[in-house]
Write a structure and sequence with these properties.
about 0% strand
């Protein structure tokens, strides 16, 4: 698979996940976005537990967020490796 196809594939997975979390599941996202069980007090949506690589798992019934974070990390890593994204923004 060429790099353009790989980028398209990763972007599509990210976009699908984004639309599920912030569109279809908005009611659930909105209710849980500030819940300390889902995001630590010093965390952010993209880095919910600073210092830990969050992948969801036990106690995380917000699987669409886990999928979104995985798709985001995959797309970002690919874009950095291809020189498309500057990781030091």
């Amino acid at each position: 698979m060429d790099n353009e196809s790989e980028l398209t594939k990763r972007a599509a997975v990210f976009l699908d996940s984004f639309e599920i979390v912030f569109g279809h599941d908005w009611w659930f996202t909105k209710d849980n976005i500030c819940d300390r069980h889902f995001i630590a007090e010093d965390g952010t949506f993209l880095d919910p537990y600073p210092g830990e690589h969050f992948t969801g798992g036990k106690g995380d019934n917000w699987c669409n967020r886990s999928s979104l974070l995985a798709a985001y990390r995959e797309l970002k890593a690919f874009m950095i490796s291809e020189g498309i994204h500057n990781q030091n923004y």
